[in-house]
Specification:
InterPro entries: TOD1_MUCI70, TOD1_MUCI70_glycTrfase_dom
Organism: Glycine soja
Protein name: TOD1/MUCI70 glycosyltransferase-like domain-containing protein
Structural class: alpha/beta
Keywords: Membrane, Transmembrane, Transmembrane helix
Number of helices: 16
Strand content: 15-25%
Distance between the termini: 144 Å
Oligomer: single chain
Strand order of the largest sheet: 9-10-8-7-11-16-13-17
Length: 474
């Protein structure tokens, strides 16, 4: 029997003895864990770097938007800005007034636009030294004018409901004509657009019982005006902004007249804006009108806006400025730039957004600025008469933005304003709807300057309406 002791000895002699402690397995485990953690950190860093590269814009925009929203809400809550306080705490329907003035009040910086790559001023006035030398031009009456004389119709009060009505009874929703306007028939309406040497037309003020009463003292002042800048605020709707940018020459030759009603007078007195003993507030002569003829305050506002030739019978020129605006240019300079330099009789701004009366009518209804049924009646009549969809005048828009109207008082411009007023009285008080129609029908009128919107922005600082005008109580 053979033994394998030699093999066993060889194995014992060739083996390597490795000592293993009890702690070794734990150390190896920790090394593996650290390696895994290191790989995980490297992976996270790579992922974070990728996310930063891909979404770095969001990381900037989101905090910025959040900061802007926070600031906007903080400003809105701030009691020191644009505070509105009621006139009478017991009467929540009373108008409210801004404590702080509008931000753009008294700005004189010019409005500019780019023409052929060059930035130019929208309204190119004469330099100051030449403005001081301006005077009202003396012109001989031309024998070639299409209309030589305009006569204003006078009717008997008995033509209205047997003549036994009061002014308040005429302030109703179911009639547009009253003792102030006269009762224009459709035949008379058509005749008012005909070209004649002598025109007879309704033009307001036809009856002493018609309303719009002005004191004799104010009438006397208005009789002496040769050039006038006018505005009005009826129903307490707006504040009175002092004109700026006026030359010394214009201060001596131009009247500034603001028409208020008794509602506005009371509202302004309650915030310590009082008419002085001389009848002025700053540069404005304030004329308080009593017995306004219409319940619609917007329609009452069309009287001084469109019929300045009737209110200022001796005036040669007038500039109308809506009460929501501050007039900021020299009036004689404006006349020179928009009328005299261009040989125009009337200057008015083109509409900024639209050119079609029919598109404008849709916008008026959408914004609830007129009743849909009233607008429909007006447009149906204009379609029946054949008014084109996109009426243009001398290549420019006929649709106007009439917050500023500059004009020379001549028979033909007086006729234009009379027929325009009659359209407003007959249909809706949104005068931009009827202006293109009047231009289209009144073929005799040629010399008109439809200036661009940027020129209007240079003429005024626009404030917007401060508060809602209060209607008359019938």
């Amino acid at each position: 029997m053979f033994h394998s002791s030699s093999n066993n000895n060889n194995s014992n002699n060739n083996s390597v003895s490795i000592s293993v402690s009890d702690d070794e397995p734990d150390e190896l485990g920790r090394m593996r864990i650290r390696a895994r953690r290191k790989r995980k950190k490297l992976g996270n860093r790579r992922l974070l770097r990728k996310l930063l590269l891909r979404y770095w814009m969001l990381l900037i925009i989101v905090p910025t938007v959040g900061l802007l929203i926070f600031e906007a809400t903080r400003i809105a809550r701030s009691p020191s800005l644009n505070i509105e306080i009621p006139i009478n705490k017991a009467d929540r329907s009373s108008p409210t007034f801004r404590k702080e003035p509008p931000a753009n009040l008294n700005r004189l910086d010019p409005t500019t636009h780019v023409v052929a790559g060059v930035r130019e001023r929208c309204l190119k006035l004469l330099p100051p030294e030449k403005l001081e030398q301006l005077d009202i031009p003396v012109e001989e009456e031309s024998s070639s004018v299409p209309v030589g004389e305009v006569l204003y119709m006078s009717e008997s009060d008995r033509s209205f409901v047997g003549g036994s009505v009061t002014l308040s009874q005429l302030r109703t929703e179911d009639t547009r004509f009253n003792l102030f306007t006269g009762n224009q028939t459709f035949k008379q309406r058509d005749q008012s657009f005909e070209k004649k040497e002598t025109m007879a037309i309704h033009c307001g003020f036809y009856s002493v019982n018609g309303g719009f009463k002005i004191s004799d003292e104010d009438k006397s002042y208005m009789q002496g005006c040769k050039v006038v800048v006018s505005t009005c605020a009826f129903g307490g709707g707006d504040d009175l902004y002092q004109p700026i940018g006026v030359s010394e020459a214009s201060l001596k030759k131009v009247c500034y007249v603001a028409f208020w009603d008794e509602i506005t007078l009371k509202a302004q007195e309650l915030v310590e804006r009082r008419i002085g003993e001389n009848g002025f507030i700053g540069k404005w002569r304030v004329v308080v009108v009593r017995d306004l003829p219409f319940a619609d305050q917007r329609l009452n506002g069309k009287i001084p806006k469109m019929l300045s030739h009737r209110l200022f019978p001796q005036a040669k020129y007038s500039i109308w400025v809506d009460s929501k605006s501050q007039f900021r240019r020299d009036p004689l300079g404006v006349l020179e730039a928009l009328l005299w330099r261009t040989n125009s009789l009337l200057a008015i701004s083109e509409h900024g957004a639209r050119s079609s009366v029919y598109d404008e009518a849709k916008a008026v209804v959408k914004k609830n600025k007129a009743k849909p049924e009233e607008v429909e009646v007006q447009l149906n009549q204009y379609r029946k008469d054949g008014l084109p969809e996109d009426k243009r005048f001398n290549g420019k828009k006929a649709l106007c933005e009439a917050s500023v109207i500059v004009r020379k008082h001549t028979p033909v411009t007086n006729l234009l304003m009379c027929v325009w007023f009659n359209e407003v009285a007959r249909f809706t008080s949104r005068d931009q709807l009827s202006f293109p129609y009047v231009l289209w029908r009144l073929k005799a009128f040629k010399n008109i300057n439809m200036f661009p919107v940027c020129t209007r922005k240079d003429l005024v600082n626009s404030m917007g309406h401060v508060r809602k005008a209060k209607p008359l109580q019938s």
